[in-house]
Automatic annotation (TrEMBL):
The lineage of its organism: Bacteria, Bacillati, Actinomycetota, Actinomycetes, Propionibacteriales. Gene3D superfamilies: Nucleotide-binding domain of ferredoxin-NADP reductase (FNR) module, Translation factors. The keyword Iron applies. This is Ferredoxin-NADP reductase. The keyword Metal-binding applies.
Length: 250
C-alpha cells in the first residue's frame, strides 16, 4: 500500500498551464491543472522536466507556492541568467502548454495547521515561495497560530507576491517585515542584510517555542540559521531549504 503511494508520487505527470502571473521583471507564477495530483503539504516541492525536440531533457526542483485546496497548483520561478530551465518557465511557457512534473517531494520543510507553537518564516529572494504556501495554508485553515514573515529582498521591485503581502501586513493574522539589501522604498531607511540585530528585533524569542523555516540561496540560509542558533534557538526547531543549483541533464 505504502509502496504504491510512493510509486505514484514519483511518477512523472503532465499538468496544463491554466494561468500565468508576472510577479516581478524576472519572476513569474505558473498556475497548473494536474488531474492526477494527490495533494501536497505547504513547503513541499516538485520536479519539473523539460524535453527538447531532439530528446535532450533537463529537470529542476520548484517549491509549490500554493496551499492544496484540491484545485490547481502554483509555482513561482525566478529567472537565473543563462539558466537552462528557469528562463523557459519565466518567458516562454504559455497558457495551454503542457508541463511535466513529479512530486510532491520533501517531508521536513513542511508546515501543517495542526503543528503546535508559533511559526517564523524567513526568506531570501525566491526563497519566499514555499513560505507563501505556508501562509496560504495558515489562511485557508483560519489558523490562530501566531505567524511572522521576515523577507529579505534586494529592492522594492524585487518583492514577489507584493499584493498578497500587503494584504497580510494589513491583517492581524501575520506580522510581515521586509528587509531591503540594496535599495529601500521612501520612508524605510534601513538597507542591509539580516543580522543578529534584526533577528532579535523581529524573530520570535527562543522561549516562544516557534518553529522557524528558512529558505533562499545557500549562503543566506546558512547565515540565518547560524544567527538563530547563536541567539539561543533550538537547532531542532530551525528547518532549512536551500535553493542551490539542482538537477542537470536527465
Ligand atoms: C528544493 C528546491 C526548491 C526550489 N524552489 C524554487 C522555486 O520555488 N523558485 C525558483 O525560482 N527556484 C527554485 N529552486 C531553484 C531551481 O531548482 C533552479 O536551481 C533554478 O531555477 C535555476 O535553474 P536553471 O536551469 O535556470 O539554471 P542552471 O542551468 O541550473 O544554472 C545556470 C547557472 O546559474 C547557477 N544557479 C543555478 N541555480 C541557481 C540559483 N537557485 N541561484 C543562483 N544561481 C543559480 C548555476 O550554478 C549555473 O552557473 C529550488 C531549488 C531547490 C533545491
Amino acid at each position: 500500500m505504502e509502496r504504491t503511494a510512493i510509486r505514484r508520487r514519483l511518477t512523472w505527470q503532465v499538468g496544463t498551464v491554466t494561468d500565468v502571473r508576472r510577479e516581478t521583471e524576472t519572476a513569474r507564477t505558473l498556475v497548473l491543472e494536474v488531474p492526477e495530483w494527490q495533494g501536497h503539504l505547504a513547503g513541499q516541492h516538485l520536479d519539473v522536466r523539460l524535453t527538447a525536440e531532439d530528446g535532450y531533457r533537463a529537470s529542476r526542483s520548484y517549491s509549490v507556492a500554493s496551499a492544496w485546496t484540491g484545485d490547481t497548483i502554483e509555482l513561482t520561478v525566478e529567472q537565473v541568467p543563462r539558466g537552462e530551465v528557469s528562463p523557459y518557465l519565466v518567458d516562454v511557457l504559455k497558457v495551454g502548454d503542457p508541463l511535466e512534473i513529479r512530486g510532491p517531494v520533501g517531508g521536513w520543510f513542511v508546515w501543517t495547521p495542526e503543528q503546535e507553537g508559533p511559526v517564523q518564516l524567513i526568506g531570501g529572494g525566491s526563497g519566499v515561495v514555499p513560505l507563501r504556501a505556508m501562509l496560504r495554508a495558515h489562511a485557508a485553515a483560519a489558523s490562530t497560530t501566531k505567524a511572522r514573515l521576515l523577507y529579505s529582498v534586494r529592492r522594492p521591485e524585487s518583492v514577489i507576491y507584493v499584493s498578497d503581502l500587503k494584504e497580510l501586513a494589513a491583517s492581524d493574522d501575520v506580522d510581515v517585515r521586509l528587509v531591503y539589501t540594496r535599495e529601500a522604498p521612501a520612508g524605510e531607511p534601513r538597507i542591509g542584510r539580516i543580522d543578529a540585530d534584526l533577528i532579535s528585533q523581529y524573530a520570535f524569542k527562543p522561549e516562544d517555542g516557534a518553529t522557524t523555516y528558512v529558505c533562499g540561496p545557500t549562503p543566506f540560509v546558512e547565515t540565518v540559521a547560524d544567527l538563530l542558533v547563536a541567539a539561543g534557538h533550538d537547532p531542532a526547531k530551525v528547518r532549512t531549504e536551500r535553493f542551490g543549483p539542482t538537477g542537470g541533464p536527465r
